[in-house]
Amino acid sequence: MKEKNPSGVFQGIHEIKVEERELPILTNDSVILKVEATGICGTDLHIYHEGLVPSGSVLGHEFCGELVEVGEAVENLKVGDRVVVNPMYNGIGLGISAGGFAKQVKVDQALLGKNIHKISDKITSDKGALLEPLTVGLAAINKTHLTSSDNVLVSGCGTIGLVTIAALKSKGIENIIATDISEKRLELAKTLGAKFTFNPTKDGDLKDFIVEQYGEVDALDYSGKVPNLTSVFECTGVSSLFAQCLELLAPDGKMTVLAIYSKETTVNPNLVVYKRLNVQGSLFYTDEDFAEAIALVESGKVDVTPIITHRFPLDELPKAFEVQADSSQSVKVVVNCN
Description:
With 338 residues, the protein is of the alpha/beta class. Helix content is 28%, strand content 25%. Strands 3, 4, 5, 6, 7, 16 and 17 form a seven-stranded mixed sheet that branches. A six-stranded parallel sheet has the order 10-9-8-13-14-15, sandwiched between helices. A two-stranded antiparallel sheet has the order 1-2.
């Protein structure tokens, strides 16, 4: 009997199903890997709740595995290599190419250091599944150009907020306030490097808290004092908090936005002008960002596996999505695919 490739297929909004598909077929410039572990990402949840990709797409873009076949034209890779995939080149798991919620995955036009990165046995399957989101946070920090004297706020402690905190800490940033409405997530933020935590449902006013920790500076429009908050990483996807972060920043402050928003919001653009704010989005990353993330994990300088709250086998993928969608019980769900 011919072996099949069980795969997590997006059927429609709130519907993920594991189907028996054919195993991928090797081509001259491709590799095929046996997937070890795949994380459920916030982007996967947007797809789950809103659609965004064609029905029939195999999801999963945060994964690692072992090469089981290597095309003749592929250089510097061999069967048995453990690798992590950069999905941005091929759109793997993002509605373009079949993703990592599967027993096996094919990566076309495989290029070492581009869409394929080798990892050592120092990186467990769990750590390998978290390399892609760690790279997202690391890339945002690298383009923000911080110094050790920056006073930082990380708004939102989901996966991306938490890995951003870990990456900030690895770069010598000490003054980090993490804010979230979940005490579980705030505890993880402390574990990963946040100096202070704030829960807006119980800890009072965020502006007052920031002033208490970082002090105040003069606003440039003669409106008085503002918190001495020099940088914000907005990771919630809550539109009203986007506007709040603009208000909280000090003159010449930097706001880097990593979240995806489902609703529009109203902001006062004069805040950007009067305070000379630098506001930028961060979604993709460079090859160098990916290599840096791998090096940080291999060296032991960063370990974000504490954020994993649940693990499921591939055949329980629909349940895994339900758990990941419930932020009251989960932070990061990882799926074991073999």
